[in-house]
Amino acid sequence: MKLNISRDARPQVRTLLIATAITLALWFIPYAEILTYPFRIFVTFIHEGGHALAALLTGNSVESLSVAMNASGETYTTRGGLFSQIFVSSAGYLGAMAYGALLLVMIRRAVAARVVLLASAAFILLLTTIFGLWKPLSNGMFGRLSLFTLFSGLVISLGLVLIARRASARVASFFVSFLAVQCILNALADLKTVFFLSTPFGPSVPTDAVNMANATGVPAIIWAIIWIGIALLILSTAMRMYAVSKYGSPQQQDLPFEDPLEV
């Protein structure tokens, strides 16, 4: 069955392509990583938040969450059964991909960009204050406190709130598209890195795939391949929902580059 991009989806698709082009261009411009650094930290919070939520959903507790200046992160949780360990370890990269896909779907379904930004700000703030500050303090794990986690979490949350409150509807909508692209592309890039680290020729470094191998006995590279396949499935499903409308769907009116309504 052949499906085409619906007419009402074309403005959103154009916006997404522009956000993707800007992201890819910044990756290849020398020193442009300074501009994308805050977005990279945002994706790391989403990644670690995926681990934390998966732990809570499987009846475990989160002991601490931290994000480092090099955009790596750590989330310590209590260890449950085999299913729990698989779910928690898989929820980082796949969580970041799913978050980006969710942003795409919400844009397509005309959810207000300001609502999306405020919800994202609240999520980052909760991760920072509860798992980055309160849980380590209450557990007496002062060594897991990270000033950078607290600082970056508060700054990112405040920045998202300011954009939601001060930016125009079109700018806010474009920013949500840009966040979605950042989550998706960074998740794919991280999965590629994990794949190469999991090969016999890769350096021996701790990764989520190594955690999965230790828990299941299945080689890390197999888990990396499985995650890549699931991530591509999530992305494919989201793109079909975003760009293709067989029966027609609501058209968001405040996206950039969209023709204004005539009154």
Explain how this protein is built.
This protein has a domain at 33-185. It contains nine helices and two strands. Helix content is 68%, strand content 4%. It has 263 residues and is mainly alpha-helical. Strands 1-2 form a two-stranded antiparallel sheet. The chain has helices at 10-28, 33-57, 82-90, 93-108, 113-138, 147-166, 169-198, 208-216, 220-243; strands at 62-67, 73-77.
Q: Could you tell me the mean pLDDT?
A: 85
- Biggest beta sheet attributes: 2 strands, antiparallel
Structural class computed from helices and strand pairing: mainly alpha
SS elements, strand count:
2
Q: What portion of residues belong to β-strands?
A: under 5%
Q: What radius of gyration results from the CA coordinates?
A: 19 Å
Low-confidence stretches: 246-263
Number of helical segments with 4 or more residues: 9
Distance between the termini: 38 Å
The helical percent reads 55-70%
Q: SSE order in H/E notation?
A: HHEEHHHHHHH
Strand order of the largest sheet: 1-2
The dominant shape is: globular
What's the gist of this structure?
The chain is mostly helical and 263 residues long. It has helices spanning 10-28, 33-57, 82-90, 93-108, 113-138, 147-166, 169-198, 208-216, 220-243, and strands at 62-67, 73-77.
